[in-house]
């Protein structure tokens, strides 16, 4: 990247993002209010966020031909996101109950089925993103790893562990799976809560250093109201969160992820990541866009990421 280059809002015509992972219905329960249903799932949220930002995106997932599945399909269409043929199955659509506390923080209870559709993935793709439950839960997790590691050379690979301890299994098994996928990825993002569960007692700075030393070209840790830490090679950027009144935190990390990937694309940073030549100024520019995306999302209910106009207005 050129250090003094101003960010562009346009996406190259040849750009195509592929997101692999779960799509489900979030049933949100707030104190003193009736439950509300939203389309959700971390990879689905990232695909939707990319679509809202004008990135041509295809989602590979598993939903049912049922009312919940129709809600998800319509939600994706509204952002211009394609469902890969084969993603709609005869089974039921998965769901997650999100229980919000008085501060808007969410805990989850899942009713989930996951098996990657047996279909050919579209090619070529500019980037492939995966993460969360779909990358761990079997039998789909093995197929996700195969699709991810089998991507053509030059494809930007992005991964967000988005740990869900109640459904993913033992910590040791999850750590092994997360590290295996991360070794194949160029971009890895995790939250401070993910990091604390995966590596109790280890500092965020040390975790970032370890992942970069293992070959990750761009590693980011989100820290909620304390902003984010980004590391690439020997460069580090610690960024403050954007001031915002929080309505809820649903989809905040996913919006950071889609904002980060969008920033990489519009700043022509893919080659710098593949060549591992990002500097501190680059990290600051990419991280600020991602943090702005997350701030907009937490300022309103549900996983509702920004459009390009909203992002640049902020």
TrEMBL record:
Q: Which domain of life is it from?
A: Bacteria
Which terms in the Gene Ontology molecular function aspect does this entry carry? Answer: ATP binding; kinase activity
Keywords carried by this UniProt record: ATP-binding, Kinase, Nucleotide-binding, Transferase
Q: Where is the Carbohydrate kinase PfkB domain?
A: 15-306
The answer to whether the entry has keyword Transferase is yes
Family under the similarity heading:
Belongs to the carbohydrate kinase PfkB family.
Q: What is this protein called?
A: Carbohydrate kinase
